[in-house]
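step=predict obj=HTH CENPB-type domain-containing protein n=162
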Amino acid sequence: MDRKKICKKSSAKKKMMSIELKREIIEKHEQGVRVVDLSRQHGRSTSMICSVLKRKESIKSVTPAKGLTIISKLRTTLHENMEKLLMVWVTEKQLQGDTLTQTIICEKARAIYGDLLKQTPQTSIDEASEESFKASRGWFENFKRGAVFTPLSDMVRQQVQI
């Protein structure tokens, strides 16, 4: 009998880079290290390294919220400020022993975003509007994953609605 090889298809999962790693890559490249060497050293593709280098100015200028290690998209400072304030609020609620749900956190995120939007002077019509931030399930999952403190992941109960 001939044995068939069972080929397990490995799904290529996107590897996220921390801000620190991106800054390290930029610094090494500025010191003269080649892109190919950086990609081998960090186990990333050359195209990913080039993407980081292409956005180096915005990566250098971003200041992530305390506790966040990974930022997948470079967003406006309005989003960053909202997430910083939301993390402070979540921490306070955790210290008080309150139970937080996804719905509660998303509602608070929308409220904070709306308040910040009202305080920020708008310079053009294309600027952010209250409708532009939806606090979707995807945003919440990214926010939860990006938070270093794991109690958020443990404490948040998702409400299943049938």
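step=describe
The chain is about 55% helix and 0% strand.
step=end
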